[in-house]
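lol forgot to send this yesterday, sorry. struct tokens for the thing we talked abt
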């Protein structure tokens, strides 16, 4: 399981060569979400290259474009995540 930084396709292929008997997948999370919001499949030998996996149960996410509309597949924007483990606010920063 890889976290804290993206795992490139090239590095994934190198790991498969070096450690051929292990599963390799990655996840994604933020400090504000109390760590993980996505995880790769434990049932795949190697996760889909370039993917941080699927949302874990209880998490919802959307892409918000600069104009305030929702983004679709392949569109850039801000990732907005909602889950029961999200932080409510930042300490001493009511506007954050």
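and heres what i got for the seq, position by position
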């Amino acid at each position: 399981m890889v976290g804290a930084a993206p795992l490139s396709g090239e590095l994934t292929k190198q790991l498969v060569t070096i450690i051929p008997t292990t599963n390799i997948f990655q996840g994604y999370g933020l400090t504000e979400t109390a760590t993980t919001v996505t995880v790769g499949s434990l049932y795949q030998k190697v996760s889909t290259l370039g993917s941080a996996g699927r949302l874990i149960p209880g998490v919802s996410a959307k892409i918000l474009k600069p104009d305030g509309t929702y983004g679709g597949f392949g569109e850039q924007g801000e990732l907005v995540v909602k889950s029961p483990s999200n932080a409510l606010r930042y300490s001493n920063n009511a506007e954050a």
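Strands lie at 27-30, 35-39, 54-55, 60-64, 78-82. anyway ping me if u want another try
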